[in-house]
Amino acid sequence: MKYQVDKKGYYGEFGGAFIPEMMHPNIEELQQKYMEVINSYNFRQDFIQLLKHYVGRPSPLYLAKRLSEKYGSDIYLKREDLNHTGSHKVNNTIGQILLAKALGKKRIIAETGAGQHGVATATVCALMGMKCVVYMGALDVERQAPNVKKMRMLGAEVIPAVSGNQTLKDATNEAMRDWIRNPVDTHYIIGSVVGPHPYPDMVTQFQAVISEEIKMQLDEHIGREYPTRVIACVGGGSNAAGAFYHFLENEEVELIGVEAAGKGVDTSETAATLTLGNVGVLHSSRSMLMQTDDGQIVEPYSISAGLDYPGIGPLHAHLCKTHRAKYLWATDQEVLDAALELTQLEGIIPALESAHALAALKKIELKPTDVTVINLSGRGDKDMETYLSHFGY
Amino acid sequence: MSTQNRINQLFEKKQNNIFSVYFTAGYPDLNDTVPTIQLLEQNGADLIEIGMPFSDPVADGPVIQQSSTVALKNGMSIKKLFEQLENIRESVNIPLILMGYVNPVMQYGVEAFCQKCQEVGIDGLIIPDLPLNVYQEEYQTLFEKYGLHNILLITPQTSDERIQEIDNASSGFIYMVSSSSTTGIKNKASDFHVDYFERVNQLSLKNPRLIGFGISNRETFDNACKYAAGAIIGSAFVKALDQKLTLEERISGFVKTVVSPA
Ligand SMILES: Cc1ncc(COP(=O)(O)O)c(C=O)c1O
């Protein structure tokens, strides 16, 4: 159990809960109750039923034949893009809304970058009849207008975060400030495996359904419960955490995370945290982050708003440090090429985030007998404008 | 901890109406830090909190966020701040506290930071995102080695049991956050949770308390002082610095709106 969170909320030296005292009652309540609630019979029943009938799980594990032919090795795609709302994010929001209800909360807040997590949160709030407030960087509100409209139609209030660079990091700051101002009836649904303990572990538990299904589905496909490797893109790291989880202790399985290099890791316009960052505390957990020598957080950049984050979940910092997982990076250009390749070989338009995982195929050695699973974390509908402006269709 | 610490001396000398002021180092101009401290003391401040600006101050409202952004643009850093404070004890006698977030302190190096604090004459630290358990496990020994009080916060939601725990772990004073909020400005005393102030006063704590967050003018200051040894003004002061007057005029002008001349 080398890769599980310990009692104090750490993965090795990473994690913990560096919270201001104002957040203590809520975080302590979550720390004390989350395991009990999510392991309870009623919770499991509701969670499994909603994932099945509302989200549409299990998501298929699809052998991408033409892609496999091209690379001379079997490549399976875990189709999180086919989930309701279009990405893996909904696995977590279903889990957290049920938890919030169990804790008697009446109001939900969330942060969002590209809007995928915001939409997934607004969706489950509509489903449960809960009040929903989503913080989104003012710049992202402009860049991701369709998702903003979706959230509003779903009944959520979208509040533009006007501090800092007005992107995901700032939206997260604003959500935390909201929680400080509303300590009693509000639950904060964090969208990735970041934030104070227990969020990284809790979100990992909700996303772990991805690797649980991969095991069963691989058994059907190849008569073996594990692949040669699993590849996933990493922003905060929730889809990767879910895709890796049930393989963590099986060291035969190679785990590869792919970060967003933006315009390149040798430029200042990048979001490759594990490649370029060092240890620090952001959003209440100790992990790797992109910062100046003076400890100020550096603004990241990526073509995909969902990977545009200067930190990374503490689990990934630990997996990287212990060499259990390997972290590569892909540039905007490599990502666009990979997205077009999948679109034209398989008829699947991936999210820009997920295309980072696809881009790794060109960066690793694939043997003919290998079985590679790529977590296709989301679909590309939200990215059409970016794709069209680059490909000019 | 030695009673030489200026914070303890202050509370021995004065049990009421302690007038404490927060400002952000390097704001409005990079080199305003030292004159601001000197002018505050001259105008009657009993204690000063010097804010170390951080890019992502989650416990702060818009005014202090804005001042932090400006200070960072001006080139403020912990290293720069220690340079500015090098000779501060030649001209300033009141207790000085540094307030800031844990990440820049970590990057500076915790021990080097504490050592430097002692060298320049800092008496205490307020690090809102350094919670009690992490402080006790990783930082307390160093803070004590260099004679620094760690000032911990309590809020209206903090349970009696935890307040006792915080009291036991405190040595200077307890920072009583006035209401459920980030730092900011409240103009009316009726915005405060009087029942919470009274609850805390009945706990017979060993440490004195100062009330902060939202204190902005004579009404809110006087009201807070009814329930604690004094109060801390932050955002309202920082906002007052943003005027087209000399630094001296801005500071003396603001102080007059809160306390009467001694
Ligand atoms: C489709 C998709 N994949 C991945 C991510 C990145 O998040 P994480 O690293 O937590 O999986 C996002 C975030 O918005 C997303 O929308």
Automatic annotation (TrEMBL), chain A:
Enzyme class per UniProt: lyase
Sections of the chain in a coiled coil: none
N6-(pyridoxal phosphate)lysine: modified positions: 89
Top-level taxon: Bacteria
CDD domains referenced in this protein's UniProt entry, alphabetically: Trp-synth_B (cd06446)
InterPro entries named among the record's database cross-references: Trp_synth_b_CS, Trp_synth_beta, Trp_synth_beta/beta-like, TrpB-like_PALP, TrpB-like_PALP_sf
Assigned GO CC terms: cytoplasm
Spans through the membrane: none
One Pfam match: PALP
Molecular function terms from GO: tryptophan synthase activity
Subunit text: Tetramer of two alpha and two beta chains.
HAMAP family assigned to the protein according to its UniProt record, in alphabetical order: Trp_synth_beta (MF_00133)
Name of the molecule in the record: Tryptophan synthase beta chain
Natural source organism: Sunxiuqinia elliptica
Name of the gene: trpB
From TrEMBL, chain B:
Involved pathway(s): Amino-acid biosynthesis; L-tryptophan biosynthesis; L-tryptophan from chorismate: step 5/5
Residues forming the catalytic site: 49 (proton acceptor), 60 (proton acceptor)
GO MF entries: tryptophan synthase activity
UniProt keywords, alphabetically: Amino-acid biosynthesis, Aromatic amino acid biosynthesis, Lyase, Tryptophan biosynthesis
Catalytic activity annotation: (1S,2R)-1-C-(indol-3-yl)glycerol 3-phosphate + L-serine = D-glyceraldehyde 3-phosphate + L-tryptophan + H2O
Pfam families: Trp_syntA (PF00290)
GO cellular component, one term: cytosol
InterPro entries in alphabetical order: Aldolase_TIM, RibuloseP-bd_barrel, Trp_synthase_alpha_AS, Trp_synthase_suA
Superkingdom of origin: Bacteria
EC number: 4.2.1.20
Assembly and binders: Tetramer of two alpha and two beta chains.
Function comment: The alpha subunit is responsible for the aldol cleavage of indoleglycerol phosphate to indole and glyceraldehyde 3-phosphate.
Family to which the UniProt record says this protein belongs: Belongs to the TrpA family.
PANTHER family for this protein: TRYPTOPHAN SYNTHASE ALPHA CHAIN, CHLOROPLASTIC, TRYPTOPHAN SYNTHASE, ALPHA CHAIN
NCBIfam families cross-referenced by the UniProt entry: trpA
Protein's recorded name: Tryptophan synthase alpha chain
Annotated source species: Sunxiuqinia elliptica
Gene: trpA
